[in-house]
Amino acid sequence: MMSNRQFAELQQWSREVARDPAAPAFLPLARWYRREGRLEAAIQLCVRALARNPAHLEGHALLAQLYLESGDRERAGDEWSIVLHLDPDHFEAQRGLGFLWLERGEYASARRHLERAESLRPGDPAVRGALELLAERVGGAPTEPVGRAAPKGEVRPSAGVREVVPGRIFEPLLSDPACRGVLVLDAAGVVLAGGLGSDGHGSAELLAVRLGGVVAEATRALELLGARPYRGLRVETEEAIIQLLPCGDELFVLLVVDPAAPMAASRRLAETALELVGEVREGGAA
Amino acid sequence: MKELLRQTLAQLREVPGVRAAFFVDAEAGLPVAIDAVGEVDARRVAALAAALRGRLARAAVGAGFGAVSVVEVEGGGGRLLVGGDGELLVVVVADPVAATEVLRQEMKGIMEVLR
Question: Among A15, A222, A241, A276, which has the minimal tally of Cβ within 10 Å of its Cβ?
Answer without folding.
Answer: A15
